[in-house]
Write a structure and sequence with these properties.
About 40% of the residues lie in helices and about 20% in strands. The protein is of the alpha/beta class.
């Protein structure tokens, strides 16, 4: 399995009050085979106030929930908020050591300032897994919905429902985490359909 090494971070530098997580701590699926036959995928739904993330294990057609949560940044200086997201997301990668990552595209709305800030948060979402040596996939929201729900303009409640079907028994931290899990599921599907699953698996079992 791909192992990521990060610089040590003092506990006082990380504020767990800003960090919500639901996790199922388990070994990768064995199924009579050696451990590590699954590829671990991290999906990220960018946001400045709430950045959702979800981790799944992919073993052939089988998807297993590992963890999901939301990185929060409070009001205040933009630079410090971005730093907070970077720190929290780095901790996610350190805790779950994914083999592949994917980030949802942001969309442009009428509020140019809000769009710019969202783009900066998305930059953090792309940077952190890239720093860990991962190749990062990018998907438009409609592509994610089409893959997970079957409809490109599905509502959030439909996405949440289908994520729960794909990942039975999952407890989801909130809509942002549900979207992130959907991104992870979408990336898993495209890894397989594009024939890149074998390469990701080779890195995972290394």
């Amino acid at each position: 399995m791909h192992t990521t090494v990060f610089p040590r971070m003092a506990s006082r530098d990380f504020d767990w009050r800003m960090f919500s997580i639901r996790a199922k701590f388990s070994e990768k699926p064995n199924n009579g085979q050696s451990k590590g036959q699954a590829v671990r995928v991290l999906g990220i739904d960018p946001g400045l106030r709430n950045l959702g993330w979800g981790v799944i294990d992919v073993d052939g057609a089988r998807l297993t929930h590992v963890a999901n949560g939301i990185c929060h940044s409070q009001d205040g200086d933009l630079a410090q908020r971005l730093l907070s997201l970077h720190t929290q997301l780095t901790e996610v990668l350190r805790a779950f050591a994914p083999d592949a990552a994917a980030v949802e595209h942001t969309f442009v709305n009428k509020d140019a300032v809000a769009t710019l800030k969202l783009g900066q948060a998305r930059g953090i979402a792309l940077l952190v897994p890239a720093q860990a040596g991962l190749t990062v996939g990018e998907y438009a929201p409609n592509a994610v919905k089409k893959t997970v729900v079957g409809v490109g303009h599905a509502a959030k409640v439909q996405v949440d429902h289908m994520v729960r079907i794909h990942l039975p028994g999952v407890q989801i931290s909130g809509p942002d985490a549900a979207d992130a899990l959907a991104v992870a599921i979408c990336h898993a599907h495209h890894l397989q359909s594009a024939g890149r699953f074998e390469a990701a698996l080779k890195r995972a079992v290394g």
